[in-house]
Amino acid sequence: MGEKRRALLIATDTYSDKTFRRLRTPRADADALAAVLTDPAIGGYEVETLHNPPAHEANLTIEDLFAAARSDELALLHISGHGIKDDYGRLHLAMTNSRHDRLNATAVNAQFVRNQMDNTRSRGVVVLLDCCFAGAFPAGSAHRTGENAGVLDQLGGRGSAVMTSSSALEYSFEPDDPDGSTVTGTAQSSVFTAALVKGLRTGAADRNGDGLVDVDELYEFIYEEVRAARKPQTPGLDSRFQGRLIVASSNAPRLPADLGRAARSTLPAVRSAAVEELAALLSSGTPSTADAARTALAELADDDSRTVSTAAKAALGGIGTAAPEEPTRSTSPPVRLRRKRLTFGRLLIGAALAAAAIALASLIVDAIGGRGTTAGEDPATKSCAYQPNEAAASGPPPPSGEVPTTGIVHATINTNIGPIPVALNRSLAPCAVASFVALAESGFYDRTGCADSGQYALRCGFDREPGYAVPVETRSEPQIRSGVLWQMPGHSTELMFSFADPVAQPVEFTALGTVSREGLVVIGNKVHENLAASNEHLADVVINDVVVQE
Fold it and tell me: Which residues lie within the region annotated Disordered (predicted)?
């Protein structure tokens, strides 16, 4: 991370207006975050901390932060304390001198922060809000006291990421107040910021193991930590940044990037395959890589899949190994609160991947558990006969014979709208995956067209014939879920990228694997360039080439 980084941390725990309850954790949280951000091995930020500033000082310092940042610098703002929504639904951040009845004059207006974000020259902006949303409405008021304060809508902007600790509101109306107008809120700052600090300090937020922590990775780690703490809050993220917005470096021992992704895959079969590679690194890797492998195996030893956990324990020796105190892998996607038109692509991600994980988990069990073998047959391979079709012609078929039935093939489908990384699982359709690899490496998919397939899938590669027939590996399911890469029967070259759940109906298809989070973002952004009911504009998509990384 060569660019300069600036951070402003504002912590308010004491208020002159007794409407606002005194908070316990903001200062300690700010101090802990400052220690991590200033660490040269992690953040390397230039940090300024304000504790209980009056509103005018906070406003001036916020403006200074964004005004001073150059185009090659990253600006980070962290505010912890009370958040209040006024009668018009506008968010204000309470400072030590704030008055609940004079918010415009005595608090930091969220629109003011947004304006500074929009006006800065900084290449990237990160805003972290750790606050509850205490309202100022008396009992019986018709105002929207139970709604989200709209912080993501008010602060989200191009080239920025806004992360919030909660979308929930907690109010306490004081029964002994004469006019019933005193409203106090209880802060939930410690859980959110503690997770933030933990993810950066330990490197656990480096989800793909590449040594860098971006905003999306950090959010996913925080989300899982907060949910594991069983607190009634759901962190939110609005990331409006093209590319990766790197927040910090990871000082944790590193695994090869592909292996790190495999160890954290939502698919048990992929995690199981990763265990074998991790075990090999224990003895053959460098000391730091071996440490990283040992840490990953310790986590997998507590995996919710018995097959994975048993293999991981065996790799570690089975005695005296315990998983670190990490949250249980969530079966629910992180909730990202975004405006539909601009950010629908990212909103697809969590739900699509969760659905794909559930759908493909059962497919993998069927594929592995239901594959019968006869005496002398190697269950790790399958015989595939590719029959030439001279009428359709585009080149010789791949060699017939034994192909692997285990393992993951990673490929990047480069299109004119961006790269779509996919993971093909050989256990689902060994012959079809082998055919895809052969076609991709021959350049078959280069400059092929795409189209929509109803309201739920991008269909590519259908306009060419391979010159041979692929053995049938179809299955019947009630529904093809979003996030799945698949083919229709008899269409052995096409690639169907599901980006939404269709109406449930029995369907025959060949399951190839899953579409990555990045790929779903690319497709989702294209889908919602046009909000019309049809997706005819998907015909603009063209595959430039396919790069296979086995």
Answer: 318-337, 379-402
